[in-house]
Amino acid sequence: SSGITQSTGIACGVGLFFYQSLDAIDGKHARRTGTNSPLGEIFDHGCDAFSTVFVLIAYGIATDLGPSFGLFVLCCLGNILFYAAHWQTLVSGVLTFGRFDVTEAQLYLISVHHSSTRRSRRGSP
C-alpha cells in the first residue's frame, strides 16, 4: 500500500492544482497589464524547473517508487523534457503544445494522488 496518509495525498493534489492554476494566471496577468519582462519569464520558468523535481518526487512517493534509481531516472527525464521544450522555444521562438502536455500531465498527477489516498483508506495496493 501507499506510504502516505489520506490527508497528505489530498494536500498534494490540491497543492498541485493551485500551483498549476496560479502559474498559468500570473503570466496572463503580467501580459494583460503590460508588466511582463524577459527577466520575469526567466524567473517563472526557473521556478517551474525547480518545482518539477518536487512534483515528481511526490509522484514517486504516491506510487511507492521510494528512494530508488527509478525515481532518479523519472526526475532526470522530467527535467530533460522541460529543458528540451524550452530549448525548442528559444530556437524557434514558439512554445508548441501537443495533445498531452503540461496541464494534462498535472491533472494525471492529481488523479494519482487521489487514487493513492483511496488505496491508503482501503489498506490494499
Report on this model:
The chain is mainly alpha-helical and 125 residues long. 78% of the residues lie in helices and 0% in strands. Helix 1 packs antiparallel against helix 4, helix 2 packs antiparallel against helix 3 and helix 2 packs parallel to helix 4.
Mean pLDDT over the residues: 82
Helix content: over 70%
Total strand segments: 0
* Contiguous helical run count: 4
Note the run of SSEs as H and E. Answer: HHHH
Q: How is the biggest beta sheet arranged?
A: none
Distance between the termini: 4 Å
The radius of gyration computed from the alpha-carbon positions, rounded to a whole number of angstroms, is 16 Å
Uncertain segments? none
Strand content: under 5%
| Global outline | globular
Sheet/helix structural class: mainly alpha
Give a short summary of the structure.
The protein has 125 residues and is mainly α.
Write the layout of secondary structure elements.
Layout: H1 6-33, H2 38-62, H3 69-92, H4 102-122
Provide keyphrases for this structure.
globular; mainly alpha; 125 residues
